[in-house]
Structures are given as C-alpha cells and as structure tokens.
C-alpha cells in the first residue's frame, strides 16, 4: 500500500506541478502589478475591518478560519521535513512560493466571494472553487463542462478533507503527545474524536468562534518562543541566512558538491511543503473567504493574501530558525566532520536521520532543557486541531454543493452526519497510524486539489482583476468600495445581484 501511495505521490507531485504553482504565482503577480506588495497596507487594514452578521462572519473570523486550515502540522513537522530532505535552501523557496502565492490567493479568494451563495436552509454564506468553476461561465456553451469540472473538484475536496488530510494532523498530535508525556495513541485518538465532534457539529459560527480565539493565541505564543530561541542564538542569525541562500541557489562557498546536488530538491521540497503549509492555489482559502461579510470581494481577497504571509513568513520561519540556529540540521563528511550546519548545538543521535517535530523540540531544549517536547506537543495540538476543524468546514461546504440541489432536506442532513462520522474515523485512524503513510496520503490530496484549482483560476481569472481595478479606483476616490456586478459586467454573481436589488428597493421605501 505504501508503495502505491508513493507512486501516486510522485506522479501528482512531479516537477510539472511545482512549475505550475510557481508559474501561476509569477503570472498573477505580473498581471496584478504585484498586488501583494503594492496593497500591503490595505491587506493588514482589511483584516480588522468589517463585522459579522447573522449570515456571514467578520473578515477577521474568515481570516482565522483560513489560518486554521493553513497553520497546522506543516508549519512544524512539514518545515523540518523540507529542511531534512531539501536542505536549508528549501526555506527560501517556501518564502518565494509564499510571496508569489499571495497573488494566487488573492485571485482565488476574490473569485470565491464573487460567486458565493447564501444557503437557503441556514442562511450562511458558502462558496469555493466548485462554486466559481461552475458559475463563472454558466452563460456560455461550455457551461456543462464547467459544471462537471466543479463537481469533480467538490468530490475530490470532500474525500481529501474528510479522509486524506485529517490523518496527518491527528498523527502528529498523537506522536508529539506520546513523545512528551508517554500518553498512548489510542487515548489521544479518543480525546480528539470527542473534541472534534463537539466543535464540528456546531456549524460555521462555532467553528469561526473557536478559530478566532485559538489561532491568534497559538501563533503568537509559538512565534514568541521562536524569537526567544533566536535571541539566545543571535550570533547565528547571519550564518543561518547565508546557509539558506547558499543552499537555495547553489552559491559557491567551497561546498559545490554538497549544495549542487540539493538545489533541485530545495525547490521541490520548498514549494511542495510551502503549498501544503500556506495552501496558496490549493483552493482551500476561498471557502473561508466566501463566508465573510464584506461590501466588496477584493477586501477579502486581500485579507487572504495576507494570511499566506502570516503562515509562511512568520510561523514557518519561526520553525526554521529554531532548527537551524540551534544546530539541529547538519551534514557530515565521511570522517564525521560537519560540512554544512550552524549553531552551537549538536544533533541528537535519535533525530539525526528522522526530520520531523523532534527537530524543533530539540532546538527548544537548547534554551531550556526539557521544555521543548511539551511546548511543541501543545503547539502541534492547537495547530493541528484547528486545521482539522477547518478541514471539516471545507468538506461540508463541498458536500452542500454536491447535494444542495436535493429537494429532500433529509438527504443533506444524512450526508452531513455521514461526513462528520467519516472525518472522526479518519482522525482516530490517523492518530494510531504510521506517519509515513499519513503524509503520503495527505500530499496526494493537496496535489490533486492544487492541479484542479490552479488550472481553474487560470481560466476564470478575469473577474478578479476587474474587481481589483474597481477596488483601487473607489479607494482613490475616498470611498469605501462597494461591488456592483452590473457596472463591471460580471455575470452570474447572483448573490451580489440580489443584494444590490435589495439595497435599491430598500432605498426607495420611505423610512420612518
């Protein structure tokens, strides 16, 4: 089974997908005139603008849901794995993929807002790649093809988010907890199922409330710990940067043989783990973006571009510096002498050949002996738990898309219960499985979604750039941007058309 998974993973995550992700990021950056850099102020201002409503969540809550999905095990074990197999240069390629991917995230999340729907049963906003793939070209002769494409994406997402990806997160939690406190994996599995069951059954409002509380807390505490480690090893900051960039680009430093062989691996692992972590282009961000209550889709598109920065430039970098500044990554020659590595610390034999969460654990132990295992276990628990909750929300959104046309509400209700049961089973099984199989399965799920979504947004991109120009025009006029699909000739934005019609009708009714 593991051999089959590795074979599939190698096909899906071939160099073609790496180039597609980077190429899309370069193209969207050029076409948007580097919106992720030009609008950096607006990105962070919009995060804290807007309030929730009975139908939608606030921009910050949507950001928190998105970060819940982005900030997970990939930020700890994933970064360590990228460094272990791709070298320190993989971190630089994670940064590059994040910088370029922020423009991709803007496009996909703005499309999610444009073509979102209001669930007639619950009143909640829902949207995502399946919705915009079907709707964007509904008025053309190819509408049948795009509808099938949307359904394929939705089906892949339901399977990936409910079965393929949760196991990575629960597996990391059980492994970290067992390592820190010798708690058996079966006990952790039971606890996770109970906690997850309570949260996901509560719907989007409970998920948003949980994420808005847990995500900022866990990210800030983790980054503070990384800053403390970096401060203690301050003299290693410049050597660490030098090591990462030399490894990323094969800069001649008298170590050509060592670096030359890993440049390709640095790109491969950096981009792969970068996408797994920040999810730019994967199609997950638009689900959370669509749930936000905003007056203009570009507002939430910018917020989601910022979430890529927070995930990779802050949280992933924190893990990288904990590993590299403390000497947890080293390459030895035949005589056992270090030829690549920084920091005063010495790699522990038990972790020398097994990249994962034990590397940052050991790095933290150099600051305070015995502190690392417990802190990383708690961090992984919070990171992974919020990610699994976000996975369920995205799986449910796509299930609603697939079954939403069913007139019998019982069908949808039963479908949701089956989905909840499936993800709880996946969490339990993942907590007690071998980590290798869990990661391979997760990579396949991420890769399939990325292939489908990036090709989709390359085809459907035009409305996102129309709205960017409209947003910037209204901002220059000193206005709070409001989206009017008719004035921009954006078709099939049915939610916004109804809202605009309602606003006009309300304005015509005498008040008081």
UniProtKB/TrEMBL annotation:
It is a multi-pass membrane protein. It comes from the Bacteria. The chain crosses the membrane at residues 12-30, 145-165, 185-204, 211-234, 368-393, 414-432, 438-460. NCBIfam families: agcS. One of its GO terms (cellular component) is plasma membrane. Pfam families: Na_Ala_symp (PF01235). InterPro entries: Na/Ala_symport. Keywords: Cell membrane, Membrane, Symport, Transmembrane, Transmembrane helix, Transport. Belongs to the alanine or glycine:cation symporter (AGCS) (TC 2.A.25) family. It is found in: Cell membrane. This is AGCS family alanine or glycine:cation symporter. One of its GO terms (molecular function) is amino acid:sodium symporter activity.
């Amino acid at each position: 089974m593991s051999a089959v998974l590795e074979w599939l993973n190698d096909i899906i995550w071939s160099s073609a997908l790496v180039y597609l992700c980077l190429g899309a990021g370069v193209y969207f950056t050029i076409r948007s005139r580097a919106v992720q850099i030009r609008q950096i102020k607006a990105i962070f201002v919009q995060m804290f603008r807007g309030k929730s409503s009975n139908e939608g969540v606030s921009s910050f809550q949507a950001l928190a849901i998105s970060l819940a999905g982005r900030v997970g095990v990939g930020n700890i074990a994933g970064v360590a794995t990228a460094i272990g197999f791709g070298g320190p240069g993989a971190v630089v390629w994670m940064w590059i993929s994040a910088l370029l991917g922020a423009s991709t995230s803007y496009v996909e999340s703005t499309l999610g807002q444009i073509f979102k729907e209001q669930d007639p049963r619950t009143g909640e906003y829902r949207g995502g790649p399946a919705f915009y793939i079907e709707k964007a070209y509904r008025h053309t002769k190819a509408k049948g093809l795009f509808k099938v494409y949307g359904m394929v994406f939705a089906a892949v997402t339901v399977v990936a988010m409910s079965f393929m990806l949760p196991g990575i997160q629960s597996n990391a939690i059980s492994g970290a907890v067992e390592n820190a406190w010798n708690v058996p994996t079966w006990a952790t599995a039971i606890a996770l199922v109970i906690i997850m069951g309570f949260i996901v059954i509560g719907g989007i409002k409970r998920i948003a409330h949980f994420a808005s509380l847990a995500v900022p807390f866990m990210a800030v505490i983790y980054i503070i710990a990384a800053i403390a480690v970096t401060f203690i090893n301050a003299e290693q900051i410049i050597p660490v940067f030098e090591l990462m960039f030399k490894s990323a680009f094969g800069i001649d430093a008298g170590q050509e043989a060592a670096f030359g062989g890993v440049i390709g691996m640095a790109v491969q692992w950096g981009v792969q783990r970068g996408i797994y972590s920040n999810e730019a282009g994967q199609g997950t961000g638009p689900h959370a973006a669509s749930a936000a209550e905003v007056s203009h889709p570009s507002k939430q598109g910018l917020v989601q571009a910022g979430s890529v920065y927070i995930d990779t430039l802050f949280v992933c970098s924190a893990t990288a510096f904990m590993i590299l500044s403390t000497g947890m990554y080293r390459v030895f020659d035949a005589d056992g002498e270090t030829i690549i590595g920084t920091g005063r610390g010495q790699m522990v034999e038990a972790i020398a050949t097994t990249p994962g969460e034990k590397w940052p654990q050991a790095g933290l132990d150099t600051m305070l002996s015995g502190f690392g295992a417990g802190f990383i276990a708690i961090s992984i628990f919070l990171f992974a738990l919020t990610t699994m909750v976000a996975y369920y929300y995205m799986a449910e959104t796509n299930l609603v898309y697939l079954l939403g046309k069913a007139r019998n509400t019982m069908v949808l209700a039963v479908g949701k219960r089956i989905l909840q049961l499936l993800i709880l089973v996946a969490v339990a099984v993942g907590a007690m499985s071998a980590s290798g199989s869990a990661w391979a399965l997760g990579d396949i799920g991420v890769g399939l979604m990325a292939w489908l979504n990036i090709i989709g947004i390359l085809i459907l991109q035009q409305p996102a750039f129309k709205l960017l120009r409209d947003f910037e025009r209204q901002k220059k006029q000193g206005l709070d941007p409001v989206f009017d699909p008719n004035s921009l000739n954006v078709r099939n934005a049915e939610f916004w058309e109804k809202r605009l019609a309602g606003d006009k009708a309300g304005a015509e009714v005498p008040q008081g």
